[in-house]
Specification:
Number of helices: 10
Cofactor: Mg(2+)
Largest sheet: 11 strands, parallel
Pfam families: Hexapep (PF00132), NTP_transferase (PF00483)
Helix content: 10-25%
Protein name: Bifunctional protein GlmU
Keywords: Acyltransferase, Cell shape, Cell wall biogenesis/degradation, Cytoplasm, Magnesium, Metal-binding, Multifunctional enzyme, Nucleotidyltransferase, Peptidoglycan synthesis, Repeat, Transferase
Subunit structure: Homotrimer.
Length: 470
């Protein structure tokens, strides 16, 4: 984009109808705060110089945004025009450019709409370009009133006449301004309306009176106007977004047997020929390779999964799963873990902050925590790496091709060497050299006829009961 451009995002709303302690813009659509949908779209459109106007819950909003953007504070909510005025210092520093004003709770303003509306704005030479949409039911939205095909003003629903309420073209709440022109009229706004607020929409009339040009850009999708004021409308946004994301994945070659219970993040990436089974939830920036089977009933959060991997009823968080891995059912992979190619992780296994090498088998009922496990290792049933002594955590190291017998406890810090064995039922507290067998058991003592004496009374009672029943 040749013109120097920037954006102001309005994110000060409290959203009392959400019945949430969180600021409105932090309410999530597909696990992603609404404001992040907006800022991501801006950045994808090439706009990185952004000011966010915050108010209620400003610390929480800033925590989500990080330090990427300029922040302006609106301590009193006196309308959209007043909100933009709080970013006056930011606007003054960009006086020679063009500014996009948009709402932090309208998540479907996409990068294509941003780019196309800017092109229209620059080509027209107007001081303001309002992004609009055509709705079958415009109830609740500000109407675009035109005279001779040109925009004359924007009228809010509560201030509109009966004829104006019949207009189907509505204001999306997003505008392109010549920044200098916007600054000229911001201080002229009045609050003589039904709400007693300073409407940003009134800048259009003010600019027209000053002899400046005003125009509109009609978005291709009516969804750009959609926002959320309560939980019901937030749910509807989620359903629209869910359908969009799944349809996008289908077009890219991902297979869905049914859509029951499937929710995918808009930021996830899934390779072709991967099948997503019912009950699967994928969050964050998860990346799944080609030819995988994910689900049923699996949860991936910011995970990376290689090609040809099967995750059945498994949960993976902030971890990497290699190619050709077979995992589940009922597996949890906690943050900081890496399961390498060809590994097998069976039912009721938990892996935490550990590396599991290529071709290693952790078949069932095992906990691997804070461990570095080599390739070709076999874990028997019921093994535990004992990583915590009550105050500190320690690591376990297991060499390639080691064999960990059933019900082995590896008390960290401990190392099991390459090709070494541990006998079933052992509690290993010392390092095991390469190729060695470690056995830690008490001697078995067998007392002949002990059980018979112990059970003699019970057996006699049982015989007596049977005779009585006859």
């Amino acid at each position: 984009m040749e013109a120097a451009i920037n954006a102001v995002v309005l994110a000060a709303g409290e959203g009392t109808r959400m019945r949430s302690r969180k600021p409105k813009v932090l309410c999530e659509v597909l696990f992603k705060p609404m404001i992040s949908w907006v800022t991501d779209a801006l950045e994808r459109a090439g706009i990185e110089d952004i000011c966010v106007v915050v108010g209620h819950g400003s610390e929480e909003v800033c925590q989500v945004l990080g330090d990427r953007f300029t922040v302006a504070m609106q301590t009193k909510r006196l309308g959209t025009g007043h909100a933009v005025l709080q970013g006056e210092a930011f606007l003054n520093s960009h006086r020679d450019g063009h500014t996009l004003i948009l709402c932090g709770d309208a998540p479907f303003v996409d990068e294509d709409t941003i780019r196309r509306s800017l092109e229209s704005h620059l080509q027209s030479g107007n001081a303001v370009t309002v992004i609009t949409a055509e709705l079958d039911d415009p109830t609740g939205y500000g109407r675009i009133v035109k005279d001779g095909g040109q925009i004359a003003k924007i009228v809010e629903q509560k201030d509109a006449t009966e004829a104006e309420r019949a207009i189907r073209e509505v204001n999306s709440g997003a505008y392109w301004f010549e920044t200098a022109a916007l600054l000229e009229v911001l201080h002229q706004l009045q609050n003589d309306n039904a709400q007693g607020e300073y409407y940003l929409t009134d800048t259009v009339s003010l600019l027209l009176r000053a002899g400046r040009g005003a125009g509109t850009y009609t978005a291709q999708s009516e969804d750009v106007v959609l926002g959320a004021n309560d939980r019901l409308s937030l749910y509807k946004l989620g359903e629209i977004a869910r359908r969009r994301v799944i349809e996008k994945q289908m077009r890219q070659g991902v297979e869905f047997v049914t859509l029951d219970g499937i929710v995918l993040s808009p930021d996830c990436e899934i390779g072709a020929d991967t099948t997503i089974l019912p009950g699967t939830i994928i969050k964050g920036h998860t990346v799944v390779g080609c030819g995988c089977t994910i689900g049923p009933n699996s949860l991936l959060t910011d995970a990376v999964v290689g090609d040809g991997t099967v995750l059945n009823a498994s949960q993976v968080t902030d971890s990497e799963i290699g190619s050709g891995v077979r995992m589940g059912p009922f597996v949890q992979v906690r943050p900081g873990s890496r399961v390498q190619d060809g590994a097998k992780v069976g039912n009721f296994v938990e892996i935490k902050n550990s590396t599991v090498g290529e071709g290693t088998s952790v078949a069932h009922l095992t906990y691997v925590g804070d461990s570095d496990v080599g390739s070709g290792v076999n874990f028997g049933c019921g093994c535990v790496t004992v990583n915590y002594d009550g105050s500190q955590k320690y690591r376990t190291v297991i060499g390639d091709n080691a064999f960990i017998g059933c019900n082995t406890n590896l008390v960290a810090p401990v190392t099991v060497g390459e090709g070494a064995y541990t006998a079933a039922g052992s509690t290993i507290t010392e390092d095991v050299p390469d190729g060695a067998l470690a056995i830690e058991r008490g001697y078995q003592k067998t007392i002949e006829n002990w059980a018979g004496k112990k059970l003699a009374g019970r057996i006699a009672k049982a015989k007596k009961k049977k005779e009585e029943e006859r």
